[in-house]
Amino acid sequence: MKRKLAAVLSVSMLASLFSGVAANAEEEITLTIMSCLQTEDEAELESAMAEAYMAEHPNVTIEFISVANNDLDAQVTTMAASNDLPDAFFMNCAFMSTALDMGIVADANDYISDEFKADLSEEVINYCTLNDTLMFIPWFQIPVALIYRADWLEQAGIEKIETMDDFREAAKSFTEISGNYGFSMVGARNGSGEARFSVYAKAFGVDEVWQNEDGTWESDLTSDKFKTALQSFVDLDLVDGVVPAGASETAYQDAVTYFANEQTGLIISGSNAVGAILNRNPELAGKLGSVPIPAATTEEGRHVTNLQVSGYTITTACEHPEEMADFLEFMAGYDNAVSFGSATGRIPVTNSALADEAFTGSEYIGFSECMQYSLPYSTFPAYAEVQDIFGEAYNSMLTGSSLDDAVATVDGRITELLGEYNQ
Amino acid sequence: MTRNKNKFNITPYLFIFPVFVLLAALVIYPICYALYLSVMKTNLTNKWEFVGVANYLSIFKDGSMVKSLLTTFQFTVVVVLGHLVLGTILALALNKKRPGVNAFRTVLIIPWLLPDVVVALLFKWIFNANYGVFNNILIRLGILEKNQAWLSTGLAFVILAAVCIWKGYALIMVNMMAGFQSVPEDVYEAAKLDGASPVQTFFRITVPMIRPVISTAVILDTVWWFKHYTIIKLLTDGGPNNATSTVSITIYKEAFSYHNYGVAAAGAGVVFVVCWLISKIMRRVMDQNA
To answer: For position B114, which CATH number holds?
Structure first.
């Protein structure tokens, strides 16, 4: 009797074990993703990709949490503090070192497929890597270049915008042609304005903050080349008058609107601005061109760009990182990346998709060309504060401060900040 | 008799228990947590280093926080005085029995009912340098020749204060109206018989009799605007050149832009103490005058 009972129990245990395996194969998986694109024009496209993935993987449910980009870092921080992290969140470059320091980032190297990684350029991988950790699975990039009105450039008789002098000349000519202004300056003191000024200053040879051989942090923000860059930038408004009124308040959306309304013909921006401009004014199709950020005509002048590679970070709270990585690779795959990129101007990260003819038009040439000039993103832990320091500098000069006053403030703040991290 | 006195009665404690739990969860715990954060250097997840009063010292060493505290005092004084003057004048006007006064009461309370975000965006558009209706009107009237970026000039503080006065005068107005109606008619009649002028009647009779109402409304208004954030953030974001950077803006930036949570919590602690002191001092002054 006992043997029979033991046999029945063994059989039933085996059966339950196999049924468990079968259940695992069909395990219902929910992936929560905190997305700032859900609050922007790209929401439908992103949701459509999720729908397509869920159709292919019926056991997977993808739920987006919408958060405005400006609130994203704060939201992630508060959720991390309350142990309530989503499975993935959109990574802002300025938040990378803080997120790594908080221990909330799962190294994507552990989950990314070899095939996908082999299709990424070295620049893209370097951009997403911090202290040997692949911070996020790259989805698209929006390298910063100069977008211009090609028809106005021809009308002005300027062959190409290669240097900052050419740029200034074009801005003046475009002001005459448009009867309004020439350059859509984003002069607001926020991350968007600061990122643009950052590449402008770098074109003068400025390195905002770097670590020397003995590990000490140093900065060019008190150097003469930074002063030259700063003065040159604000002079576009204060001296040349080629910038719409209220430059210190002008945010990205305003700047794009001025361009789309044909009130200006130049804007320093990521490639997504091409999509935004054409969405607002489709009549500008075929009239846009782009070039790498002009090099300053100083000794250390150079072309430069910030690749602004973007994607989702898998968090340490994610219980299904492999599935999450699979979905993120699906979004960055050839078909999705090309259709998403052509609709939004957010350029693919994979070499195969980048070679598609959708990104070879005149409006994208500058963005393709500028990739060779990309610099890795700063690893300084308080880089966001460094950005705010030079943001305060150009913003205060646009509203009446002198160069000496602005630089004195920069000097005080950056010295204190670096001192803190050099202790 | 003695036995009854010593007998523990649990009933009152049961009545206050739910409120005590709510207060503990929503008020006491956040205050204690903020105090705890203010003595730590932390990233809120895996780094918790006790630094004592270093964060408080850094606030007073750092010029920007002190400057923003001064800006906040300036802003609060201007806005609360504006509310008091405008609210009192309008309350006096609406306290008369005239045709249509109810309609005016309804209309004048509208700014108070509008969300801060709506008010900020509304005025941001009105004062927009390129599309704003304010520039448009001034250019049409021939006062301006070209567009002016009002929120980037020295007038930004004045504009911000004006917007906040417009947004919040109704709190004082409503309280004043309620106060006026609580003064018995016969007191006014007696004053009239004694030959008091309307101004004398207002300052010698009405104001002293409604002092508790004024006191409460002013304290509430002061504390409210001292820690105000939304309109300032959306309208000027602390600019131009930090001219409107109040302590709330600085604390938010410290926490969520620079990720210095300890310093931000210390700043919040200072604001808490300042608000508490304001209410204490104002209450004492008002009580002494009464």
So the answer is: 1.10.3720.10
Name which of B152, B237, B258 is nearest A398 (Cβ-Cβ): B152
Please tell me the distance from the alpha carbon of residue A273 to that of residue A386, in angstroms, as a whole number.
25
* Rounded CA separation A354/A126 (Å): 18
Q: Are A385 and B257 in contact (CB < 8 Å)?
A: yes
A101:B43 CB<8 A: yes
Q: What is the pLDDT of residues A40-82, one digit of tens each?
A: 888 999 999 999 999 999 999 999 999 988 788 889 999 998 8
Q: What is the ipTM of this complex?
A: 0.76
Q: Are residues A155 and A270 in the same domain?
A: yes
> What whole-number distance in Å separates Cα of residue A154 and Cα of residue A150?
6
The label of the residue with tokens 């970026």 reads: B149
DSSP-derived pairing of the beta strands A183-184 and A133-134: unpaired
A48 and A98 assigned to the same domain = yes
pTM: 0.81
Given a contact cutoff of 8 angstroms between Cβ atoms, the answer to whether B256 and A77 are in contact is yes
Asked if A329 and A302 sit in the same domain, the reply is no
pLDDT digits (tens, 9 = 90+) for A185-230: 999 988 889 999 999 999 999 999 999 989 899 999 999 999 999 9
**CATH (domain of A392):** 3.40.190.10
**A192-228 burial: b if 16+ Cβ within 10 Å, else e:** bbbbbbbbbbbbbbbbbbeeeeeeebebbbebebbbb
Q: Which of A80, A384, A400 sits opposite B257 (nearest CB)?
A: A384
B259–A contact, CB cutoff 8 A: yes
Q: Least CB-CB distance to B240: which of A74, A248, A258?
A: A248
Q: Are residues A395 and A256 in the same domain?
A: yes
Within a domain: B20: no
Interface test with A, best of B155, B259, B260, B261 (most A CBs within 10 A): B259
Domains of chain A: total: 2
> Are A87 and A172 in a shared domain?
no
Is A246 close to B255, i.e. CB distance below 8 A? no
Same domain, A332 and A402: no
Radius of gyration of chain A (CA): 25
**Spatial CB neighbours of B280, under 8 Å, sequence gap ≥ 6:** none
B/e letters for A247-265, b = 16+ CB within 10 Å, e = fewer, are: bbbbbbebbbbbbbebbbb
Which of these three, A336, A364, A392, is where a domain ends? A364
Q: Which domain covers residue A102, as residue numbers? A: 29-142+309-364
Map tokens 């404690």 to a residue: B13
The torsion angles phi and psi of A264, rounded to 5 degrees, stand at -140, 170
